Amino acid sequence: MVLLRRVIGDALRARRQGQHRTLREVSSAANVSLGYLSEIERGQKEPSSELLAAICDALGARLSELLREVSDTVALAEQMPGVLVPVQDEQAVPAAAVAVRRSAGRGVHQVSSDGTVAVQVRQDSPLKATLRSSRVRGSERDVVCAA
Questions:
Q1: What is the residue-wise DSSP string for 22-79?
Q2: 83 touches 25 (CB < 8 A)
Q3: CA proximity to 87, closest of 121, 127, 120, 131
Q4: What CA–CA distance (Å, rounded) separates 132 from 24?
Q5: What per-residue string of b and e applies to 58-82 under the rule 16 or more CB within 10 Å gives b?
Q6: Burial class of residue 99 (count of CB atoms within 10 Å of its CB; 0-12, 13-18, 19+)
Q7: What span, in angstroms and rounded, lies between the C-alpha atoms of 126 and 45?
Q8: 30: which of 91, 96, 107, 133 is 20 to 30 A away, CA to CA?
Q9: pTM of the prediction?
Q10: Helices 23-30 and 34-41 meet at what angle, rounded to 10?
Q11: Full pLDDT tens readout for the chain, 147 residues
Q12: Under DSSP, is residue 94 helix (H, G, I), strand (E, B) or coil?
């Protein structure tokens, strides 16, 4: 199962690292302790809406943009069999998915849709999965979120 706090934390970390900023810089700008911001990014703490807005402001991002990225990541995870639904309720991969691949013995699934978004899911246990989504632009690949 993908935890929302991990997806949010990874989206925040991806934005911060994309700007080549340190935890100290962002925590100072958002007026939050460095340790607490670190816990948020690692998915150990779930930020309040006020704190999330302050962190987004410190990153120069709109809260709606961040939540849209998180929503897109979770929506892609919902389309993947066995990620957010019990195994017995598993449904076929949607027609929008171009490629589905499972690496032997490691529980890794990769789904790509229309060549612009790729999602990689590693099933760590029956109740835990690691989700990583990326957006492809031309010859480069941006990590949107990893959880």
A1: -HHHHHHHHT--HHHHHHHHTTSS---HHHHHHHHHHTT--HHHHHHHHHHHHHHHHT
A2: no
A3: 127
A4: 25
A5: bbebeeeebeebbebbbebbebbbb
A6: exposed
A7: 22
A8: 133
A9: 0.60
A10: 110
A11: 668 899 999 999 999 999 999 999 999 999 999 999 999 999 999 999 999 999 999 999 999 999 999 998 888 877 776 655 443 333 434 434 434 444 444 455 555 555 566 666 666 665 566 666 666 665 555 555 455
A12: coil
Structure tokens given for 33: 């302790």
Q: How far is CA 85 from CA 17, 38, 41, in A?
A: 31, 29, 25
Backbone angles phi, psi at 137, to 5 degrees: -125, 105
Please name the residue that has the structure tokens 């991969």: 93
Q: Which two tokens stand for residue 109?
A: 């699934």
Structure token pair of residue 64: 């709606």
